[in-house]
Design brief:
This protein is an alpha+beta fold. About 35% of the residues lie in helices and about 20% in strands. The strands form two sheets. A six-stranded mixed beta sheet has the order 1-2-8-7-6-5, with helices on both faces. It has a six-stranded mixed beta sheet with strand order 3-4-9-10-11-12.
Length: about 325
């Protein structure tokens, strides 16, 4: 691939740091030399910080904005994403496919550091790996990465600690919520990959999902952000190739293809004793998808918005009487 994902993300990181006071974020350096940018652990963060974080997750290969909603969904704004390089943006960078696990730390890793490590199975199918002199990573976590967690990353990416920058935000933070809801397109693409679709056929894509309320803790926020995409996410992609494969795979892409569909995510999570991996993986996808075939000119639409479940979910963030 020609685009250097970590280099592109580094430009956005520099712009972020220049506005750190305005965005209500902080940055520091660990004793080992790793740079940490805190967007929500010990700081308030902001909507603008969340948008910047989401675009860094996309390695600057996509644009994220907040747009007003005029529909009957139970919120006033939605998070939109558009990319003309969706394979690199969403699957080589944004997808949170790297669990950063050590004896003293756990977090979900995304961003272009994944392409520098290139250790996940998905890179066997999409390519998009790279060597990088400076690596940018994003971790969904409520705690600052430890030295052992940083060492795990630097070893995988074959860099020195001073050449690693990590951006961190909890799920329940404002920036964390925005960057997760910005994953509507990514969830559709990952679902299509799991269904055996050749992601190289996807030329460009857009996604929209309602901006959910902040949860009082990470568990509730996990449910709210998932519900925003599962029951309110709308994705549109432009693909090449034949129509028959699109007709076959289309009904399987939206979240309503799952047996676990139809209840707030927190309720589903509790049903499986808070074991994420027991949930039907077919659930994790947007509510609707529109597929445009650029070769045939035909368009296919699948799925539906479920405003009733969204309302139930979003109301759970309100204080009880």
């Amino acid at each position: 691939m020609t685009t250097r994902l970590n280099d592109s993300a580094a430009v956005l990181v520099q712009q972020l740091l220049e506005k750190s006071a305005e965005l209500e974020i902080t940055h520091s350096q660990l004793d080992n030399g790793v740079t940490i940018i805190d967007l929500g652990i010990s700081v308030a963060g902001s909507l603008a910080a969340g948008i910047s974080l989401a675009e860094i997750c996309l390695a600057a290969q996509g644009h994220v904005t907040l747009v007003p909603l005029t529909s009957e969904l139970p919120t006033t704004h939605a998070v939109t994403i558009k990319s003309d390089q969706p394979l690199a943006a969403c699957m080589a960078s944004q997808y949170a496919g790297w669990q950063i696990v050590t004896d003293d730390f756990f977090g979900m890793g995304s961003g272009p550091m994944r392409a520098a490590a290139g250790s996940e199975d998905i890179f066997k199918y999409i390519g998009c790996t790279e060597s990088a002199s400076h690596v940018i990573g994003v971790i969904e976590t409520a705690s600052i990465p430890t030295e052992t967690a940083c060492e795990l990353i630097t070893t995988a990416c074959q860099i020195e600690p001073q050449n690693l920058t990590l951006l961190v935000a909890p799920t329940s933070s404002l920036a964390g919520t925005v960057q997760i809801v910005a994953r509507s397109l990514e969830t559709a693409m990952h679902k299509m990959h799991e269904l055996g679709f050749d992601l190289h056929r996807i030329q460009r894509g857009t996604g929209t999902a309602p901006l959910c309320p902040l949860g009082k803790d990470d568990l509730l926020s996990l449910g709210l952000t998932n519900d925003a995409i599962l029951y309110g996410g709308e994705v549109e992609i432009w693909v090449s190739g034949d129509d028959s494969s699109l007709s076959d795979i289309g009904p399987k892409i939206p979240s309503n293809a799952s047996e676990d569909y139809g209840r707030p995510f927190v309720d589903i999570f509790k049903q499986y004793n808070n074991d994420f991996y027991k949930i039907d993986p077919q659930l994790f996808s947007p509510a609707t998808i529109r597929i445009n075939n650029v070769d045939t000119g035909n368009t296919f639409c699948f799925g539906e918005i479920n405003s009733a479940v969204l309302l139930e979910s979003f109301n759970s963030a309100r204080p009880s009487d």
